[in-house]
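hey so i finaly got around to running the thing on Methyl-accepting chemotaxis protein from Anaerosporobacter mobilis DSM 15930. pasting the sequence first so u can double check i didnt mess up the copy paste, my clipboard has been acting weird all day
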Amino acid sequence: MGVKLGKRSLLRKASGSKRGLIHSLLVKMLIAFFIPVILIIILGRICYNYASDTIIKDYKENSANTVKAISMYMDLSMDMVLSKTQELSNDSDVVSYLTKGQLMEKSKYSLLYRNIMSDLVAMKSNNPNILDLHIIAEGTTAKSEANSSNSNVSGTSKTIYETYQIKPLSTKGELSVNIYQDLMNSGEGTAWSNAKNPNQWYGYHRFLDEQLETNNLDYALTLVRRLSKGKGFIIADMKLTTLYEILDNMKLGTGAIVGVVTNDGREIYASNQDEKTTNIFSSISYSQEVNTGTKTDGYEEIEYQNNSYLFVYSQVGDSGVMICSLIPKSTVLARVADIKKATVLVVIIACVVALIIGLGMSFGISKDISSKKKLLSEVAMGDMTVIFKTKRKDELGLLSKSLNEMTGKVRKLIGGIFHVSNDVAGISELVMINSNNMLEATQNIFYSIDGIRQGTSKQAEDAQNCTYQMNVLSDKIEEVTMHAKGTEKIASDTKGVVSEGIILVDDLSDKTNHITDMTHTIVDDIVKLKQQSASIYNIIDVINEISEQTNLLSLNASIEAARAGKEGRGFMVVAGEIGKLADQSIHAASNIRDIIKKIEEQTNNTVKSAQKTEKMVESQKLALEETVHVFHSINQKVIKLTDQIDLIAIGVDNMAGSKNDTLSAIGSIAAISEETAATTEQISETGLVQINFAHELTDITQKLNETVIALKANLDSFSI
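ok and heres what it spat out for the 3d tokens, dont ask me to read them lol
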């Protein structure tokens, strides 16, 4: 519908500026797919490194365990040889043959020699590890005696001693009788004799090889045992085939060099080794732990002939013999070669699959987006009849569906705008009519607001006068408040004084009660004293009776003394003194009676005085109780007075608060009146502005009609 306008400008906007290839969605998606491919490569590398490290570590430990197990097996074989030499050393025939050389018949020595040789041959035959056995000892010059007749003296004979040298023994061949001395004169014999261990393993016995015309390739190891009794050695040669069997069982991989190193420097390799292989282990720089013997087994990485090797070693018991192996690093790494190949293959396959999937998805998405881009360019030029077609079921398919819905709704929107533009044209005419009516109404409102402004100004003046009168009333209320607070203070002080008086009177009452109690106690004590005085009269009566009896006794004594005559004179004197004493007692008792009588009279007077005092104290106590009651009454009245004054103060405070509220309300009324006046002034100004707006609205309505006409012309360019 309509003619398409501005087509060239819309095409330029749709095409836009061309971006570089690097900013395209295809390149970004390919980069996004390449990131997991790179991560897959990194993962493969990490897995390979982890697997190779684990396998290499296990291979090293397994190799070390294999060498250690072989060393233990070899130690067992060597112990069997050692036990046989121990049997020989403790054999009674050997001990007798080597140490008992005094006065033994030659035939017995020959028999011992044959028996020992038979034992050596049997031991060699029965033990698969022993090649030959040798016994070399210092020995002694044996003696045997024989009787012979004396040719010069008939019937007599003399002893003849025959001497001979002890022979050494060997299953390999016959040895010289002087071989021990020759051996000790050589450096080899001295080393054997000075060795700390009486049972020492060696790789060579060169002196013995010269004597027997043998070669060190005939035997592997040789055990030299020093005799515990006598001077000499038991020598046992271990078969080379036995050592080959042990070393050949060590399957340590292709190119591995396996051998045995003795403490005297001999190196023996497995039978499958190259014959040119010699002195390899002696040319290697070991670690300090291996050189010093502090570490008996283990492994370490070394360099030999510019190649990396794994050196595995293990000592054979305490024999001084060490099993060694050199394993090329390439052999160790060969175990992980298959893992490397598999890892590389999987990574390559993953990369290819990721690239194929990424390229397919990227090209499909790019093609679909290009198609939508072309159709959107047509929509941008105003063609709303475009339909976005796609067979995709993913988000791009949903996007096509959404775009179709969008263009459909835009078509409806444009159609609606056509109808709305027509409606707007009619409405704009109505707006113009209403704007004229609004202008007239606004002018009427302006006149009404001006009248309100004058009334609010008069109301503001009246509110200010009311505020002045309330301020005068407020001053009066404040004076009443001050007087009420002064009265309240006086009442409070009076209450304090009354409280102090009550405390003093209570204290005086307590003291009066205490005095009353003391008076009662005094009266009781005086009465008791009077009773005690009465008991003294009884005692005086007893004393008088005793005095009378004493006078009678004195009189009787005087009579008896007179009868006695001259003999009773002394007794008469005593009787006279007793009579005088009795008279004095009667006189003293009479004086005491008089004193007690006076005390009794004084006591009666004191009792009367105390009773009067008690009555006075009782009356004083009653007066104090009345005083306390009066003080309590005064205190209650003062409390009521204080409460009333408090109520007055509260009422005055409430009046002050109400005054403040009234002032606040009047102030608010005044403020509101002023604000109302100001607001009405502003409304008046606003009314003027509103009148101007009404004029402008009329102009705008005219322009709206012109705009609606232009909108209709633009809508004609869309195809719906």
